């Protein structure tokens, strides 16, 4: 299975898990916002019984505090949902070595790295990839120094290296994933708001 297809499959699975988790978090955040609105409205009603000017000032203060609290709660829920998404992706990545597709993935990562650093002389791997690396190393010195869920590091004689591990690729994709997640949340929140 080509690397792009594997990554798309990982993204699809992660997206499905994220959608479920994020829907629950969005609903919880919406409930908190609604509860804060209800409490603010109740306080506003009580304050109107007192002097009108003081009541209006107090009500505005309470609404502002409720908005701040609701915004903080929503931000925290969004960040927790994104952290959960990353954890789920990491969990899925950690199982790739045990799949039938891992050998092809490892070979593709090596080919990609070798294309970027053709002068490489050393292949650093996780010891669990020893047999796999022996089959594809083609003259590289294999060193079992990595501890990774998958992937490798190539090193040239001058010390330049290419890290091509699954963890490194996820770290490099995190900004894009965060952007996609934010777009998805905005769409989800807009649709929830339309239904309310």
Explain what you see.
The chain is α+β, with helices and mostly antiparallel strands. It has two domains: 3-97 and 169-195, no CATH class; 100-166, ATP synthase, E subunit, C-terminal (hypothetical protein PF0899 fold). 72% of the residues lie in helices and 8% in strands. It has helices at residues 3-48, 52-94, 102-116, 130-136, 166-195; strands at residues 122-124, 141-143, 151-155, 161-165. It has a four-stranded mixed sheet. Helix 4 links the parallel strand 1 (122-124) and strand 2. Helix 1 runs antiparallel to helix 2 (52-94), helix 1 packs across helix 5 and helix 2 packs antiparallel against helix 5 (166-195).
Q: In brief, what are we looking at here?
A:
The chain has 196 residues and is an alpha+beta fold.
Distance between the termini: 44 Å
Q: What ranges have pLDDT less than 50 throughout 5 or more consecutive residues?
A: none
Helix content: over 70%
Shape: elongated
Number of strands: 4
Query: What structural class results from the helix and strand content?
Result: alpha+beta
Give the domain tally: 2
Going across the biggest sheet, name each strand in turn: 2-1-3-4
Mean pLDDT: 85
The H/E string reads HHHEHEEEH
Main sheet specs: 4 strands, mixed
The proportion of strand residues reads 5-15%
Radius of gyration, taken over Cα atoms and rounded to an integer in Å: 25 Å
Number of alpha- plus pi-helical segments: 5
